[in-house]
Design goal:
Strand order of the largest sheet: 3-4-5-6-7-8-9-10
Order of helices and strands: EEHHEEEEEEEE
Strand content: 35-45%
Largest sheet: 8 strands, antiparallel, barrel
Radius of gyration: 27 Å
Helix content: 10-25%
Number of strands: 10
């Protein structure tokens, strides 16, 4: 069936329906932001909450004259790094002093739980640090999970890797970090290994 107009031409009913729909339909609003990365945000918030709670308990114990225990050696930390594949990242986490009675000027060990969102990837790691006790330096090694997002450097996007990394920190927790990780999502035969390299402060 068709409908004529004043010039004698005809317009199919389907075309008329399409035209009317376009005229009456509401415009779709563009999404200004990408979908939030809720798991990473929740992990970061939890790490900061645990660190803040531990610090508050430590301060309370000091004020009341309580004997210092191992739980007082829990501390929060922040960091910032640049490199592959994250491009630029910030980190937050909780540290546990494994030698709570050691002299701060002597070597000690700390265990760190870290989450680090970045422009090109998200990272989570469990890191063991051996501090030299001089100038805040030391070495660190850990187990790492990386999920690439957006436009990572030297890696495909939306891919998960697991592996290990090693940090050399000459002074104040600052220095390079090198890692080797194995691809565990998608086509694992395509670029199965990922070398990571970054430099900055913290973990």
């Amino acid at each position: 069936m068709s409908t004529g107009n004043e010039h004698g031409t005809s317009l199919p009913d389907s075309s008329m329906a399409t035209t009317l729909h376009r005229l009456t339909a509401r415009p779709r609003l563009a999404r200004p932001f990408a979908r939030p990365r809720w798991p990473l945000i929740a992990g970061t918030a939890l790490a900061l909450l645990l660190a803040g709670s531990a610090a508050a308990r430590g301060q309370s114990a000091i004020q009341t004259g309580a004997t210092q225990g191992p739980d007082l050696r829990v501390f929060p930390f922040l960091g910032i790094r640049a490199g592959t594949p994250q491009r630029m990242s910030v980190s937050a986490g909780v540290g546990f002093d494994l030698d709570p009675t050691a002299d701060p000027s002597r070597p000690s060990r700390e265990l760190l739980l870290v989450v680090a969102p970045g422009l090109g990837a998200e990272r989570g790691s469990l890191t063991l640090v051996h501090s030299t006790g001089r100038y805040g330096g030391g070495v660190a090694g850990g187990f790492t999970v990386i999920r690439t997002v957006g436009h990572p450097w030297q890696a495909p996007a939306n891919t998960t890797y697991v592996g290990a990394d090693l940090s050399i920190l000459p002074i104040i927790a600052m220095g390079p970090r090198l890692g080797l990780l194995r691809r565990v999502s998608g086509n694992t035969a395509d670029r199965p290994w990922l070398w990571t390299l970054d430099f900055g402060f913290g973990f």
